């Protein structure tokens, strides 16, 4: 399946960004309780970060349909390590092997930016994501002290 990655057009697609994040939150926590608090300042942050080097925000398209979103950066607290904030596909595009393509895209961007590793945080309740990440080679690092039932994973690029 041919997909393409385009920088997010905040003015045109911000409501979709929020909808995607809400669904990702539901997948992670089983409820959207607390989502509204988590999204406060998101638009301003998105606008600011897109102006700065090292931040990556992409929408994923299949033909004329917007099917997902990626948010990642080429830095973290660990040296030479990028951080993946969001890998999201709408439900009807999950399980089609696109997760591998998304990770290959992220990997290429991070390697070009000088990263040797990538890191992400995932909810223990998001079994589908956990299964995918483990199968793709992500390795458990440690629990997230700020996130209940959340763990950090890392992969060599």
Automatic annotation (TrEMBL):
GO MF terms held by the record: acyltransferase activity, transferring groups other than amino-acyl groups
Segments forming domain N-acetyltransferase: 3-157
Keywords: Acyltransferase, Transferase
Signal peptide boundaries: none
Matches recorded under PROSITE patterns: GNAT
PANTHER family according to UniProt: ACETYLTRANSFERASE
Name assigned to this protein: Acetyltransferase (GNAT) family protein
Source organism per UniProt: Marinomonas rhizomae
Lineage of producing organism: Bacteria, Pseudomonadati, Pseudomonadota, Gammaproteobacteria, Oceanospirillales
């Amino acid at each position: 399946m041919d997909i393409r990655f385009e920088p997010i057009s905040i003015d045109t697609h911000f409501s979709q960004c929020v909808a995607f994040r809400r669904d990702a939150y539901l997948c992670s926590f089983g409820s959207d309780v607390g989502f509204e608090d988590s999204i406060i300042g998101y638009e301003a942050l998105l606008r600011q970060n897109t102006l700065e080097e090292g931040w990556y925000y992409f929408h994923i398209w299949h033909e004329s349909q917007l099917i997902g979103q990626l948010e990642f950066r080429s830095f973290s607290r660990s040296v030479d390590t990028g951080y993946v904030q969001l890998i999201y596909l709408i439900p009807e595009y999950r399980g089609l092997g696109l997760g591998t393509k998304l990770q290959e895209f992220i990997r290429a961007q991070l390697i070009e930016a000088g990263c040797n590793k990538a890191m992400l945080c995932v909810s223990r309740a998001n079994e589908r994501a956990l299964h995918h990440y483990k199968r793709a080679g992500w390795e458990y690092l440690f629990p997230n002290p700020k996130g209940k039932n959340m763990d950090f994973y890392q992969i060599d690029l």
